[in-house]
Amino acid sequence: MSPIRYSPAVETVQPDETETVAGLNEAFDIILERTAEDYGHAVRSVHAKSHGLLEGELEIDGNLPPELAQGLFASPGKHKVLLRMSTNAGDILPDVISLPRGMAMKVFDVAGERLPGSEGTAQDFVMVNGPVFAAKTAKKFLGNLQLLAKTTDRLEGTKKVVSAALRGVRHAFEAVGAEAPAAVNSMGGAPNVEPLGETYYSATAFRFGDYVAKFSLAPVAPAMTMLTGKEITIDGRENAIREEVQKEMRDISAEWEFRVQLCRDLDAQPVEDATVLWDEADTPFIRVGTVRAAPQDSWSDAHVRKINEETRFSVWTGITAHQPLGNINRARRDTYRHSADFRARTNGCPYHEPTGQDG
Question: For the chain, which terminus, N or C, has the lower number of CB atoms within 10 Å?
Fold first, then answer.
């Protein structure tokens, strides 16, 4: 089956999206203001806690077939990248509260027409270690976020208890060969896995030049695949994950495949419902490039300043050839900027978008 060609018709804009975005910004403001007051420093409204910060390189494959030689991947070559590994909460929690992992990547020196409001010359990819999104629509996500906002930077002891209970629920599902609902992981029942062993997914759909696709970043270096599924022993360490990644990256030459999953059936692979799994048996992820990061200090002062403080990541930073698609992504456009602007303003630290070769 041929891949679906991109046209504006693949999206269906809902009439209440503007109101939903306003509600999301209000909920994010509660999180942002509370954490900034408590920490004396503004942090991200989601994925606030970093576990590893890396500089690396994306090498785009040569001789890709036309349906894969699209946008950033139209020409072989090498691009500098920044990588940020995190967990999804808007407050900085001890690692015993186990949450899904995130990976954000900024690719430098990307040519092409820019998305509206997208400064600089970078292309951002924002991914999580699960192939689907936790909410069907931005409106449903808003309901979840409003509940989370009420407990942000509050009830840490309760969260620890709930997280332990939800991990038990997940183990019960696994014991009978079933997969736990996504909500179990997102609320604190996720396994405390090694971030370097995880496969990350865009979860939502994007334009891929002439086509529509989802993205993935999968570890392939043996030292990383050995970590896949391995759970970190917390042992009372609030930053155990960060410490483990820092120790591992002293010796690991990290390598991931950047993969693309083309949409070939809009009914089976909907753009507007990010909770629907695009079955890899029907449309597999295919490599279009390789991301590499040499051994380095993943929590150096320089990386913390450059990547954690001065850099923002947004699915709406990039070129029109990789336009975010669907209700969840449309809601991300203003909310990501709203959060980043608050952080920059409160910390007196403007974020910096690269504007030339290697920034």
Answer: N
